[in-house]
Amino acid sequence: MDDLLASLNDAQKQAVLTTDGPVMVMAGAGSGKTKVLTTRIAYLIESKSLPLSSVLAVTFTNKAALEMKERIKKLIDVETKYMWVSTFHSLCSRLLRNEIHHLPPFHSHFTILDEEDSLKIVKEIMKEEQIETYKPKEIRKLISKAKNFSHFEIKNPQLSALYEHIATLYQRRLEENNQLDFDDLIIKTIELFKKNPSVLEKYQYQFEYILVDEFQDTNDLQYQLIWMLSARYRNLFVVGDDFQSIYSFRGANIGNIRRFQEDFTGYQLILLEQNYRSTAQILNLANQIIAKNPNQIKKKLFTDNNSGMLPFFYQGQSAYAEVMFVIDKIKQLHLDQEEYRDMAILYRANYISRSFEDMLIKYQIPYRVYGGMSFFSRKEIKDMVAYLRLLLYSDDNFSFRRIINEPKRKIGPALLEKLQQDAYIHQCSWFEDIPRYEGKGQGVAALKDFYRMIVSIRAQLDNIALPDLIDILLDETGYQRMLTESEEDRERLDNILEFKTILKETSEDTDGSNAEKLDRLLQDLALRSDSDDDRAENDNCVRLTTFHQAKGLEFNTVFMVAMEEGIFPSDFHDDELDLEEERRICYVGITRAKKRLYLSCADTRYVFGVQKDMVVSRFIKEIGNDLFESPMSHLKKQPARSISVQKQSEHSVWKVGDKLNHKAFGDGMV
Asked: Is residue 28 a known part of a binding site?
């Protein structure tokens, strides 16, 4: 048992050993919260001889859940696949698979819709209702907001009435097709518990110890779910950092920290303040900026690493000068043996990346914009998943509609509408209705052929190696022929072939028949999100990303660019609370840096095609001169200066009276 605790500092040990009752851990950036969480789980299981199923640990990403499982296995060598360590959505999916029959007409083979799928349903409804006043994406966002924000209100009466109508039809459509969207997973779980107290009691008894990661990011529904599950034993352990609460736009409620304090009287508060990531010089900046926010749980990061360089501030005459400053530093650092993958450029607004991308390309510096479309969001992968779902679930109308004409089979919308009506009369799914559907013509023949093909492949399912199923689908459906007709589709085919690897891993790592293995895989795939896209993780390239996307990452060298009023803090902050969140975003950016931190801004910048004079971010001013390496002219009153038009050299410094020539504007004088 002592081996588990040997590498922990005193505060971390306290967090692990305080096993019973409500505990709140405020863990500063880089303070080892994942280590504390996983060690605590291992300690609970070992010291109390707990069954694995009695501990519930909830986090926000599949990557974080997987990392926790791997660390626990290294600590105590248990079979983690029997543990309840997952995201909120995975937890609710698992609970609903077992219990949703208590909420008829739903049953356990419900489909989980992602953003694209649910948007498609909204589009269909708006088309049927002949609604063209608003865009489907706008309505879909409103539906999601209404589910995630406890205080949601549409001020426009016309839009409000329209939204209510579409949202009602949307939920009815989902219910008719045994579908849930991501937001419904938590909502339906809470509904299940409220309507069926015995089901709630069952899981309250099971989960003797509950742990929640990134508690500051929970929304009202997530808090309610955890509160319900922990009501019996009250052994609730939450880890978070109010300094890093930056997701209010997703519904995250920093007020849940205060709710915990009120709901769980007698709770213990533990602070993790020792940072193992950054130098003292970087932490001084972080502490200085976040101290400006009121109403926080007071803590101050410290470290034993005092050997770093002061962060550097650069103020360029133009956005071009700022970009070239960053490019020069990257080139120099790389010459000094710094890997590209250890450097990141962080920005508050996505449009800022373009100028950096241009110069990175020009100087042949490899880079990647972090947070692009994930593997499982690509059309060809979603098509394959739909084929697999239809193989398993004949009643999956949504998957049937997705792939009935992928590739094209000349089965027109009129025929599909008739099939839908016929299926409704016979009280069966569209696919199940095909054998009894009467009609003639090319479309009907293609429909019958499609049915026979799916039934034939389904019959082979338990007699083949699971990865071979992809080859069979590609060949018999004609999907491979469709992709090989065009050279540009080759990458899509490669993506599908990569999908075979996942089936191979599923086949090796999951027990049961092929159908059971496939069912488990499809459940897991439905819970993946764009935020789990780690395609760039092993590529040696500079990362370009927003501050929000960078949360949870760390780099030897960080460039925080465009530190200007209106960009950072954003123009969109309406009140003091919004400004406090902007300041927390700045804190998150600073604490991504391990060794070197550069902050920069420009005096002038093109913003949406208009060249503007910019003002240095108030955050730079709040930090102060003493914590930067460079003298900071922004602290002195500056005379108004004309817009810089030079681009000949990033190192040029114009003086009053200098003559210059510009290729567009001609001769002039500063």
From this structure: yes
In angstroms, the CA 261 to CA 264 distance is 6
Distances (CA, A) of 55 to 43, 51, 76, 80, 464: 11, 8, 15, 12, 37
Q: Do 23 and 169 reside in the same domain of the chain?
A: no
Sorted by sequence, the CB contacts under 8 Å of residue 579 that are 6+ apart come out as: 569, 573
- What whole-number distance in Å separates Cα of residue 446 and Cα of residue 429? 18
Two structure tokens written together for 525:
């795939």
- C-alpha torsion angle, residues 116, 121, 124, 126 (rounded to 10): -100
In this structure, the answer to whether residues 305 and 326 fall within a common structural domain is yes
Boundary-marking domain end, from 148, 177, 206? 177
Residue 446 annotated as binding site: no
Task: Examine residue 391 and state whether it is found in any structural domain, yes or no.
Answer: yes
With beta carbons less than 8 A apart as the criterion, state whether 170 and 193 touch. no
- Under a CB-based contact definition with an 8 Å cutoff, are residues 60 and 217 in contact? yes
160-169, 290-299, 634-643: which range is least confident on average?
634-643
Tell me the pLDDT tens digit for each residue of 588-635: 999 999 999 999 999 998 775 567 899 999 999 999 888 998 655 444
Among the candidates 527, 554, 581, a domain finishes at 527
pTM score > 0.85 for this model?
Answer: no
Catalytic residues: 33-34, 213-214, 244, 592
Residue 33 assigned ligand-binding role: yes
DSSP state of 243: G
Q: What's the DSSP call for residue 541? A: S
266 is in an annotated binding site: no
Contact 545, 536 (CB under 8 A): no
Query: Residue 585 and residue 338: Cα distance in Å, rounded?
Result: 26
Q: Are residues 360 and 475 in the same domain?
A: no
pLDDT, one tens digit per residue, over 379-402 is: 888 999 999 999 999 999 999 999
Is there a contact between 61 and 275 (Cβ–Cβ < 8 Å)? no
DSSP SS3 for 437: coil
Q: Which residues, 6+ apart, have CB-to-CB distance to 134 below 8 Å?
A: 159, 162
CA–CA separation, 475 and 431 (whole Å): 21
User: Are 130 and 244 part of one and the same domain?
Assistant: no
Residue 540: exposure state from Cβ atoms within 10 A (0-12, 13-18, ≥19): exposed
Q: Are residues 421 and 431 in the same domain?
A: yes
Range of the domain at 464: 375-527
